[in-house]
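A note from the maintainers: we've had questions about how concatenated examples are separated. There is no special marker in the raw files; a new sequence line simply starts the next protein. For clarity in this README we add a label.
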Amino acid sequence: MDTQEIISQFTDLVFYYGPKLIGAIIVWFIGSFVVKGLTKAFANMLEKKGTDPSLKPFLISLIGTLLRVLLVITVLSTLGIEMTSFIAILGAAGLAVGMALSGTLQNFAGGVMILIFKPFKVGDVIDAQGYVGSVKEIQIFNTILKTPDNKTIIIPNGGLSNSSMVNFSTEENRRVDWTIGIAYGDDVEKAKEVIQKLCDADNRILKDPAVFIAVSELADSSVNFTVRAWVNAADYWGVFFDMNENVYKTFDKEGLNIPFPQMDVHVHKEV
């Protein structure tokens, strides 16, 4: 091959690939600028929405990576490289990895949903997956609870984000319910008055809504009252336990009997 032929082939290559190379370089620079702008806009959106600080870096990095992958595919396509097979292989590999890590990815997705929509936050008391406790930490794969008896419960976020949950900390006030029984034959009106006085004497019980007291059941061994009172959420358990103790002490002084299950046995003597 002589020099003239080499120069001719080189010239053909330059004229064929030169415009594509220049186009790819232009696409790369413009695309990089667009990716940077979109990533920054996404970060600002997360900031305005108050997204959890532990989640923001990950989401920004994820979006930036996806945009750069799309940019690389676009640049390679501009150069004339066939990307159909590459995308198919990439998709198959992603599917295989997704199936192998289905449980882990479900927990990851659940963690992202929890951190974005915030059904609860650190410090809230929740009832979820059969456990009641305060939220100590929200991780990307798990949520850590601390129970009242100081146990650490680790709950995977996948199930936590897809099941029912009770958050006791979202509302300022909570209703305390009691079932209080008196013996048959005791004065019902007097029992109501005593319960009302005990509620009025506790400053933690709110005046509005008013305390509800009513006979709810004529049970086997007792006449039962349903008592409902509203308190600040932080006072719930204190009011609940104190009222039980006060009812027990006061009923005895007022001549009201707190019944317990009993059975009368009658013996007949045959003559």
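[label: protein 2]
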Amino acid sequence: MRHIAIIGSGPAGYYTAEACQKAFGAECRVDIIDRLPVPYGLIRTGVAPDHQSIKGVARRYEAVALSETVRFVGNVSVGDDVSILELQELYDAVVLATGAPSDKPLGVPGDDLPGVIGSAAFVGWYNGHPDFADLDPPVHGRDAVVVGAGNVALDVARILAKTEAEFGGSDIVGHALDRLRGAEHATVTLLARRGPHQIAMTPKELGELAHLTRAVPLVDTADLPPFEADAALEPGLRKAVAHLRGFAQPQDDKTVRIVFDFFARPLRIEGETHAERVIVARTRLDETGRVVDTGEEYAVPATLVVSCIGYRTPPIAGVPYDDALGRFANVDGRIAPGLYAVGWARRGPTGTIGTNRPDGFAIAERIAADVSCGSGKPGRAALDTLLGERGVEIVTFRDWQKIEAAEITRARAGAPREKFATIAEMLAARR
């Protein structure tokens, strides 16, 4: 029997568990360990609440979790309740699937002012992550700035621009909906260091901006490359740029403007006691494609600044870490004998949810090559004994189903659920 521990219950964790099931059949036992009492990682707390179809992938993970060979072990903090070294002594293979939940610092003067928030924190706030339930961002100012040129930046801008009615059918958490109710943004500015041809935004997400009730997306025609240059782009990016070209045409007069400010790099954030404005450098691309400043500077008003420039994997004691890349040090997913990384913890925050599936199967192959059957390690029984001695209250997948049922029961009209936003509420619902 191979005993495998996977740390993290997001897409990378569940795809790896599924891969181990298929590789080893009944001759493996997989424990998926998570710090929170609830599973699914960024599917629950990272995907935008108005993108319910994407969250549907959780049903696939549920089928894995309810099988005989896989167990969810929630409410267990690796590093606090149990160490990596202890897990390596109990399991034949330990796989780190912790994702990259920490914001990459914006790294400009003033980024520590009140009102400047990383996207992991802001997205976690409106998605009900317990770590950010008390964030209380200043969403009622007239001007907001979102730094970044990817889908997360689009999510943040869209959430800020929506009316309350447009959240119908979403699972945005109640405390965020209450704060956003009545928000009167006049302008949400998206700052991108490069131009339209260098965005990481996808056509579907861009297209959603054209259908908002009170908000209109705007692009300056001067920022757009010649139309004939679009022909060299790959199809997805070409469709995305087509949306941007549409946003440069005369638009309906609505109360909120979503302004795409390309070739713009934040230099510093200014304000007396909180963020008031972002000082921006105008940029251009040199002949090698590098971003260079033109020498022009200007100010963009903002009482809320959300930085969507990337994420980092938090270090874990005893695990080699690549500080420059913000992920665990590994070679093709192998950190050390019996210790592996998968998903964003392995490669950094790149790719889609589906990218984690082949990643998980590749790690299962490495485990098969490295770990033979019959090692004699005790696996989950020994973990249960150890955690019991330390007074750690394990949450199983059946317990999670009780929490989920309670969230569905307490949902507002039209919403799929009302998430519990504290661990204490989750544990109480489980009991």
